[in-house]
Design brief:
The structure is a single chain. This protein is an alpha/beta fold and about 230 residues long. The protein has 10 helices and 12 strands. The strands form 3 sheets. Strands 2-1-3-4-5 form a 5-stranded parallel beta sheet, with helices on both faces. Helix 7 packs across helix 9 (about 195-205). The protein is elongated, with a radius of gyration of 19 Å.
């Protein structure tokens, strides 16, 4: 799965640096914005998996952006790592109070930025990075081999089918938006019916007893039920 980061800073040197840092980190992709309004527009179109946000922007402050995002149901849980040159403890506390999840002072260490970003995603979006086997009744999911077993028999899932099912299963009980699946698993937003075709095949391979676990939340996405 691809983890999409949005780096927001009016200093192109910083955003280029962040892009360079994650360029060779497998599974990560970085987009950039140089103003708060640009960032909010991008987030409204396609929410990233995590936001690396500068405090001092030329139009809207990082604090204000945090407040806007936390008031919106669609983005209230978006992981936010605040990046700033301000090192005073009261400013750090203020950033966290306004909705940031973590705080890193510029100039930052390359390895610390990677570690903090990965830790933030593990904590807030575990289904993107967890890889433990899952079991629901007589259905077993093996992420290491990208295999699904029903009553011990290999259900012959393709890697794409496995990743779609695993994303739903690791987030059992919660709605996973259709667009989110398309972007994170298929790699782009598909205006064709590609996802519908994949889900139809997944349900067929699961069989009646497990296909019912994948419920459609009309207008929103899909929910995997563990019961």
């Amino acid at each position: 799965m691809i983890i999409n980061l949005l780096a927001v800073d009016d200093d192109k040197t910083v955003t280029d640096f962040v892009k360079a840092i994650f360029l060779h980190v497998p599974g990560y992709r970085v987009e950039t914005a140089d103003t708060g309004r640009h960032a909010l527009k991008m987030i409204g179109q396609t929410a990233p998996d995590a936001l690396l946000l500068d405090w001092n922007l030329p139009d809207i402050s990082g604090f204000e952006i945090c407040q806007i995002l936390r008031r919106d149901l669609k983005t209230r849980d978006l992981p936010i790592l605040m990046l700033t040159a301000e090192a005073r403890i009261n400013k750090k506390v203020n950033a966290l109070d306004q909705g940031a999840d973590d705080y890193l002072v510029k100039p930052f260490n390359v390895e610390e930025l990677k570690a903090r970003t990965k830790a933030l995603i593990r904590r807030k979006l575990p289904w993107l990075v967890q890889s433990q086997p899952l079991q629901f009744g007589d259905m077993e999911m093996d992420p290491a081999g990208l295999k699904v077993f029903i009553k011990g028999k290999d259900a012959d899932f393709t890697p794409m089918e496995f990743n779609i099912l695993y994303m739903l299963a690791i987030n059992a009980g919660h709605v996973v938006q259709r667009r989110y699946i398309e972007l994170r698993v298929l790699g782009k937003e598909e205006f064709s019916r590609s996802l519908d075709v994949h889900l139809s095949r997944i349900r067929e391979k699961l069989g009646p007893s497990h296909a019912r676990r994948i419920e459609t939340a009309r207008g929103l996405g899909y929910v995997f039920t563990s019961e």
